[in-house]
Hints:
Elements: E1 2-6, H1 13-29, E2 34-39, E3 43-46, E4 52-55, E5 57-58, E6 67-70, H2 76-79, H3 83-93, E7 98-101, H4 105-111, E8 119-120, H5 133-140, E9 145-146, E10 151-153, E11 157-160, H6 165-178, H7 180-189, H8 193-202
Helix pairs in contact: 1-6, 1-7, 6-7
Amino acid sequence: MRFGIVVYDGVEPIDVGATFGVLSMARRVDPAIEMFVVAARAGTVRLASGLQIVADHGFADCPTADALIVTGGPGWTRESANPEMLAFLREQSTTTGVMASVCTGAMIMAGAGLLDGRRATTKRAVTGTEIAPIVLLRERYPAVRVLTARVVDEGAVVTGGGVSLAIDLTLHLLARLCGPAVAEETARIIEYTAAWRANGAAFEAPAT
Length: 208
């Protein structure tokens, strides 16, 4: 099973750790799991607060994936209106089994029109004078049925809540694509089982 992680300048580092990092641990449970990082161009990507990572592929040579996960972070405001990013996501949606997002990655998915007519969620909590992305998702994309949830699974499209809930989204995809046993054992070895269960009980909206 192959997972692709979509990044761009301004991604919040926790979104990479909560997706690629969780999948890295999952490989200990199921070595058949593969993952790669893709950006507009292969090479260095500068995340929020200055951390730099290296994208394995650019959009032009993106491998096929069973699931493609769009990360979030301050750069979403630019990427949700970036024609190159939006065209890439639309193209990938025709060949990728599951298009997914964590945190404000949903705002980029919405910009590409991939959430139209579907239920979706995104980040809720903010600080200072920031406007909650979940409010912006409702206001800017009326064709999206916005829910307060940790994970919303619409089949071909799956969206996750904010920040650390990216771990829940990744575990959800593991359960769906690799089997519940893989997800449960991954949660155990990352010492997240109790938090996963607690998060499930904390949200009214179902994961499926």
